[in-house]
Known about the structure:
The chain is an alpha+beta fold.
Amino acid sequence: MKLYSAPGTCGTAVHVILEWIGRPFDVEHLNFASMKSPDYLKLNPAGVVPTLVDDGPLSEGVAIILKLVDDYPDAGIGPAIGEDRREQLYRWLSFLSATLHPFFFPYFMPQRYHADKEQFGAVKDAAQIRVDSAFAIIEAHLEGKTWMLGDKKSVVDAFLYPMANWAYGFEKSTSTYPNIDRVVRQLAADPAVQRVHRAQGTEPKVKLAA
């Protein structure tokens, strides 16, 4: 298997999941320019990450994650078809992908949402309000749970991880959501996640106890 990703993006989640699976794989980190190269566009016409090449190229994070859950049932990374919590796997992967993730776009790319640079600050403020609305739902869901799907970590936690890291720099930081912050800290201490950070040349946004 080969993963095409970029440091700090949602491709981080797939990289973490591949580490959890423990099968051999390669990873190539792209930048915005190389995502638009002719060779990469043959694999992923949208010119974004992640893309996983196994039997053939597969794009879209949720599709890749579900493929990995189904292809490696013994890895314990998520409930199999017919198992308890499978519907919750669908629910939360969809929520993170279709609800939370788009709320970040105006914050990081306000120029896509307003032509007047003077309004970029307002666009970013509005994005933070929308992220907060999604985080509030996740925070409430995590009450009394160790992980997003209960007492065992899963691909849903891996998918939440990069997005929760992005918001540590927000006016209302991820650290103000104690349950989400706890999940991030648990993952940041995970050896597989630490290997991914080293491969990316990045660090967790949270400070771990020595």
